[in-house]
Amino acid sequence: PCLIWLCSPLAEKTGKVLGEFCRCYKEQYGVALFNSVRYEIEGNGGPQAQLLHRKVPLEDHVIYSGNLFQYIEENKKWRNRFCVVPHNYGLILYENKLAYERELPPRVLINSAGYKIITSVDQYLELVNNSLPGVTPKSGHSPILKCPTDFPLILWHPYARHYYFCVMTGKEQEKWRAVFQDCVRHCNNGISEDSKVEAPAFTDAVRMYRQSKEQYGTWDMLCGNETQVLSNLVMEELLPELRNAIGPRLKGKTQERQRTWIQISDAIYRIVYEQTKAQFDAAMAKCEQERPQMESTIRTDMDQIITSKEHLASKIRAFVLPKAEICVRNHVQPYITSILEALMTPTSQGFAEVREVFFKEVTDMNMNIVNEGGTEKLVEYMEKLSHLAFHPVKMQSCYEKMDHLKLEGLQQRFDVSSTSVFKQRAQIHMRQQMDDAVYTFETLLHQELGKVQGKDDLCKSIQRILERVLKKYDYDSSTVRKKFFREALLQITIPFLLKKLAPTCKAELAKFQELIFEDFASFILVENTYEEVVLQSVMKDIMQAVKEAAVQRKHNLYRDSIVLHNSDPNLHLLGEGVPIDWGEEYSGQAEVEPNTDKRRRAKQVVSVIQDDEGVLPYEAGVEALLQPSSPEPQEPDPGAPPSSPDGVEEIREELAKGTDVPSGAGVQPATSASPMPPSPRPRANVPSEATMPHATPASSPAPGAETTSLSTGTACHQPSDKETGEEVTPMSAKCSRPRPTATTESGEGVQTEF
């Protein structure tokens, strides 16, 4: 009922926020287009990378799959789920492994952008208690969540619904936590950097909009693709008001009010998401429609636009620079070295660990080839090595180095809400550098294989190539880190300077507007030029600090004066060739596997936990179905009651007896989960109109969307690379009360999430 009376004002307020943002976006689009064309004409590339870059790193691969328990809120039961993490980092939950292999529709599709992984029920309850002020559970009252094991995994989001999982052992929990964190990290980075106009226009528009609301500094919810980020932006403004309006109306016990609030927040988030997507898509389409004419004007009048901009910059510089330099000298310069050192230590340790992990994996492979055999074993090991960068568990030792990043007092001084932005960015760089090193190694080795004779010659070639790749890695990682340090310092100091200078400078900027010719007003903005002047005031100090840090050997950075010329001029040509398939090229297995077998044996980056530790209780129900006496699994009678213990106490009792805990209710009939129809969305990595902003490249088709299999040559109900989020039932044009999800007899059904 709360949503019914809120619907009209909610749409009105959302429309108002989006209207202001879209005006910012249109302005920034013209500036970004000009910068892109200017860069294309003038060129200003940095040092050439020595390592090769793989274009499609995880095609036809599954990151991970395995069993865990999920808490189903509709019937307050814990159920076994088989979770698959495909190459696009979605979380796809099936009834069980058999349902996945039989290509039945998944139960849930989770897009994890903006989520946090929590492994403690107490920590989760603290977040829930803080989400609704004035509602605090009394001691002795039942909490909102009880976990049947001591190893929970909770996906928490400030606006969207929460997901509750648990596993049986601490080793499983660590493995799943690493996998979930990799999904969140990948999905948060949802705005494609390949877009040289739309991406900078969008991020600059977000920054300008927030600054217009006196919100400077980093923002934790810049997560996911454009629609998800915008939904977070709207919710950031709406939520406090909605909480105050709805909170007092909630009835029932404390945990019931908390649960209701989470559901209401999620429903509002969906409504906001759909409206945001429609309005922003329209704004983008309008900009794209105007782009050809704008680009023609830029190319024709490039010199005049540059001259006009430089004239404007000189006038703003004369007004702003003296004040900015005083501010830099008094409030920024004394702290640059401290900030840089805080950034450099964990980051350099992380990149050193990447080098060590790569070296160890290749060295172990080489030793095993010596002991076990030549090319035959090489194929097996290279297939594993080729996806080392995407192995969450093996990369965890690299990523966790960034957990030591602490800005402490500097964080409050410079209004940095959280260091997570910098941690995540450094971790993404680590993964990319690892994959570049691995890809370069396998490309050079593949080229060398035709020349080697015998096992000894092969091992010597591997060692020689490893040394070459490590030299290239050292140079590229130095370049990447120095760029990361400069960008991080700017991200920390520029918002601080803008906030300091705003009282004396911002009101005076309007008078500079008359210096811009009307024909060029779409490509030159006073606000952007002002920020560039402020950036120039501190850039010299930042460059000098990074340059001096490069001299310190402890960080393993190359000096700016050292330029490593390409010793392999033809290497980048090799990287443009057909991707290497070690198994297909060297194993000699040319026969085509049936689709089902392909699906069962889909290449997987991380080994399944059960392979290492034996069969755990999750699969007991499925194992029973696969007994010899029952060659083909039989689907249960829809009228039969569930045969598995689903409640917390029941599962605990079964575990205490030392027996296996059966899975869910066996294999549910295919009709119990509605199929996921096609969405006409052609764009990759952007959610469909019926998808929820939970993450980015994890995809879920909207109504009407075609779905493709995780393995090649098959078709099944699962996300494609064209969509993101989770399946949702489209809301009607009129804002009506949300209807409950379709459920089976046990109260489950497909979670209709965005």
TrEMBL record:
Gene3D superfamilies: Pleckstrin-homology domain (PH domain)/Phosphotyrosine-binding domain (PTB). Residues 630-644 have a biased composition (Pro residues). It comes from the Eukaryota. InterPro entries: Niban-like, Niban_1/2/3_dom, PH-like_dom_sf, PH_domain. Residues 627-754 are annotated as: Disordered. Residues 61-185 form the PH domain. Residues 706-717 have a biased composition (Polar residues). Pfam families: Niban2, PH_Niban2. Belongs to the Niban family. This is NIBL1 protein. It comes from Turnix velox.
